Amino acid sequence: MNETIERAPLDEKVISRLREIFGVERLLTSQTDMMTYSYDASFETQLNPQKPQVAVIALSTHEVSECVKLANEYKVPLYPRGAATGQTGGAVSTKGGIMLDLSRMNRILEIDHQNMQAIIEPGVIQNDLNLALKPYGLQFPPDPGSANMCTIGGMVSNNSSGLRAVKYGVTRHYVLGMEVVLPTGDVIVTGGAKSKALKSVSGYDLAHLMIGSEGTLGIVTRLRLKLLPLPVTRGIVLCSFERLESAGEAVNAVFSSGLQPSAIEIMDFNCIKAVNMMKPELNLPVDNEAVLVFEVDGAKEEVTSQVNRLKKVVEKYATHLKFSDEPNECEKLWQARKLVGAAVGLLKPGGFRVYAGEDICVPISRLPETLREIHNIAEKYGIVCGIYGHVGDGNMHTGPVVNSSNEVEMENVQKMVEEIHQLAIRMEGTTTAEHGVGIVRAKYMDVEHGPAMEVMRAIKRTLDPNNILNPGKMALPN
Amino acid sequence: MNETIERAPLDEKVISRLREIFGVERLLTSQTDMMTYSYDASFETQLNPQKPQVAVIALSTHEVSECVKLANEYKVPLYPRGAATGQTGGAVSTKGGIMLDLSRMNRILEIDHQNMQAIIEPGVIQNDLNLALKPYGLQFPPDPGSANMCTIGGMVSNNSSGLRAVKYGVTRHYVLGMEVVLPTGDVIVTGGAKSKALKSVSGYDLAHLMIGSEGTLGIVTRLRLKLLPLPVTRGIVLCSFERLESAGEAVNAVFSSGLQPSAIEIMDFNCIKAVNMMKPELNLPVDNEAVLVFEVDGAKEEVTSQVNRLKKVVEKYATHLKFSDEPNECEKLWQARKLVGAAVGLLKPGGFRVYAGEDICVPISRLPETLREIHNIAEKYGIVCGIYGHVGDGNMHTGPVVNSSNEVEMENVQKMVEEIHQLAIRMEGTTTAEHGVGIVRAKYMDVEHGPAMEVMRAIKRTLDPNNILNPGKMALPN
């Protein structure tokens, strides 16, 4: 447990400068406060929480910049943090130092509906932005499962996505520009210093270097986001398949027919079981290996048409099929998918669901074999798990369920996770589709990227010569 | 004219090594060949063609890598080139050296329809790829006007887009990974060395640093592209507006209604005139300031529904309106937009259309005032021009028409271009939405980007310490 690591206290000059920048009320030093900042939603940091030495709560770009300058001058590690809903330890201090809490920089500065843009601070919660956009008939599409809690700054740092990435793409596609505090404390604006253009190819697009860099290259302090029209309504087709392979074929047939669903979700047989345990009235067919939930969106007539086309395509492969283009009925059908993350915990009495090895992605064609192989690995280690995910992207969330008091199980689940990650790479996939690297997947970086890692490290050294920004993550310089 | 620049001949050792790498047949040195490589589609290089000292035609990554290593060893400028359809001088040698022709690395290596991906060499023409994808019901959406000629490597280097970016986004959104030869000659693969995943957040996404870097950071030798389902059919609504402001309001009303057209194109009064001159039977209403052409796509029923919704929204603002969901009729309505690039040349007897100042982008809300202001500037300099473009993105193509034998006009058009670029920046826009910087817009980089330029330059120096790759472009180190 890293809690016991002995660190020399931070230089008193650093503390005193932090006090000047943030005032006494936003400079936190108590051990209780440090404990709060010592983990995120990852299994790893739940097992091994890691405390910063101090935490500060920023309210402005100026404060962030001053804090970074100070950290750079004294070579103190600095860890930016949003809502800490991440599952990789990305927002946790691994080397003591300063935790920089950005969650209160949460103002929506402008909704420019005419220009289909929003200007926000990084601490704005995804769902709060979308609620504010609704009256304008607009949306910010990337929709991680944690949308009710996660900050958009965190989404940008991890290039998050979610259910609807199959139609709407990932966070990257909605960032037009950003204000960034560099590891030197200098402030830049990407995508044009004063631009509100929706499209630009002027210069290197530094936003795209920053997006997904998990706070290792700069701290986002302002975002200019691209918005899309909010679809009028949605339709659902829920269908089940005797064999995984038929589910894969159905997905392919849907794409080949020219349909572009807004979500294509899969749940395996264990998820079906779990959902039925949690909500028996949903009554998902239990003799099936997989359930697919397709969502389409658009205006009423278009949704009805798409639901009908979808039905026609998938009914050749499916054993059972339910559908609707009525909002209330859709909500019910969608419930099965919505509940699954919580439901898998029921697969084992007294068990809890672990977030580890939970984000692999493989080519769609290799999904059936990958799902089977994960269950083989799980069986080998005596672990129960339910698998669900964004099948249209090949992204699967494995949900192992363990009993925390069972030490063997706690060890076995980690071995299982290691094998799942190796499997993903062997299947021409990746260890992480949307959650990120942080500390939990750093060890796979060299094998995934080969010589490209040296370019990443060279860029890190160029922008952060003192390696102060979120050090110890992503297999960058330590 | 730069043709007359005296350069010391390339070191005989360099020539002899190039001969070893490429053989005598693919090492070109004659002045006629050098002339062929001395310009692209920009006005600037038509006025001032710039010859490389030698040109080589690459057929493999190995050859590219060997050539780059050689250039790096002898510090010889190296200019990668695709089809040279660019309008910025980006693919033209400004410092002599070696021209590296990639247009014959044009194999489609794999169409993996199950995984919605294609693996190609950079010299593949956009339209050739889409023809090959059609039987699978798939498409590579980015669609520049030069789609019949331009290479996808060039599109990636410039982050090109086109008519349908308003729905489908830009080239960047379709690059999953790439093989890149770095300025040292080392070869990396971005997005996972062996990955075929559709989504990944593992590591910095170096592809996104390379995309739009105009060949200054690396040479793309292989691309892994994301494909989308090809829509079944399309529908068109063509409408005209007494005043530009009403056209802007119509665009806004369409977005607010939840519609997502696949294209929204604008033509100003001069374009209307020009199109009527070229094709009188189109009979566009001449008493109007603007025509908008909306395209929607999907299955037949959905297109019909969208066309009806569109009509209902825009008829409040428009003076005339035509529409169709029948392919033949749509083709006719689309013609007006298709012809406009060529038609503007008719605005002035004996004139030709110049590609300069042709790619600005402003916030949608400022389009009417920007269009009016461009015509004011044009009038001041006595230049006729037609303006058209992708109004849904705020991207306008100004088409000035001049007589090349009129020296005053040739000077005035350049002054006009300068003012158009300054106007774009003043309107919170950019000098280039999709064509790039190259040499023609390098001088605006510092004003557009401010301190962010220093980060671009630092990255350039890190990856290309000898500044051999496409030097003299984008206001990077010279």
Automatic annotation (TrEMBL), chains A, B:
E.C. no: 1.1.2.4
FAD-binding PCMH-type domain segment(s): 47-230
Cofactor(s) needed: FAD
A family per Pfam: FAD-oxidase_C
Domain of life according to the entry: Bacteria
UniProt cross-references to InterPro entries, sorted A to Z: FAD-bd_oxidored_4_C (IPR004113), FAD-bd_PCMH (IPR016166), FAD-bd_PCMH-like_sf (IPR036318), FAD-bd_PCMH_sub2 (IPR016169), FAD-linked_Oxase-like_C (IPR016164), Oxid_FAD_bind_N (IPR006094), Vanillyl_alc_oxidase_C-sub2 (IPR016171)
Enzyme class, spelled out: oxidoreductase
Gene Ontology MF, one: D-lactate dehydrogenase (NAD+) activity
Keywords linked to the UniProt accession: FAD, Flavoprotein, Oxidoreductase, Transit peptide
GO biological process, one term: lactate catabolic process
Family per similarity comment: Belongs to the FAD-binding oxidoreductase/transferase type 4 family.
PANTHER family given in the database record: D-LACTATE DEHYDROGENASE, D-LACTATE DEHYDROGENASE, MITOCHONDRIAL-RELATED
Protein name: D-lactate dehydrogenase (cytochrome)
